[in-house]
Design brief:
The protein is of the alpha+beta class and 107 residues long. The chain is built from three helices and six strands, in the order H-E-E-H-E-E-H-E-E. The chain has a single domain (6-100), classed as Roll (Pdz3 Domain). Helix content is 17%, strand content 28%. The strands form two sheets. The protein has a four-stranded antiparallel β-sheet, covered by helices on one side. It has a two-stranded antiparallel sheet with strand order 1-2. It is elongated.
Length: 107
């Protein structure tokens, strides 16, 4: 199922919870092609200053077109992003088949 985090799902940018730091970038995502890397710090989205844990809310508010200002290695950079038709960082669920009793000894 799609990831509820808008930046992660639509732009491939997974933000560390409770911060503005990029934790992961999905390969071949808008964030990847924009040159973002883990450890970069999001400063603003569409000229709105980002503070703890509000990046996803603003990305969802502005939807498809974002202008990110971010800090990379002590440099301030700006990049324009558009969503793609792909979804990134899907939620994965593991379920147990009712016929698998006794096969879980390795866990």
């Amino acid at each position: 199922s799609p990831n509820a985090k808008y930046l992660a799902s639509h732009f491939g940018i997974y933000i560390q919870p409770g911060s503005t730091l990029v934790l992961l970038i999905a390969p071949d995502s808008p964030g990847f092609f924009a040159g973002l890397n883990p450890g970069d710090e999001i400063i603003s989205i569409n000229s709105i200053e980002q503070k703890k844990d509000n990046c996803d809310n603003w990305a969802k508010y502005f939807k498809n077109n974002l202008t990110l200002v971010y800090k990379k290695d002590a440099f301030i950079k700006e990049v324009k992003l558009k969503t793609s038709k792909s979804e990134y960082f899907p939620n994965v669920r593991i379920t147990m088949d009712s016929n698998s009793k006794g096969k879980l000894k390795w866990i």
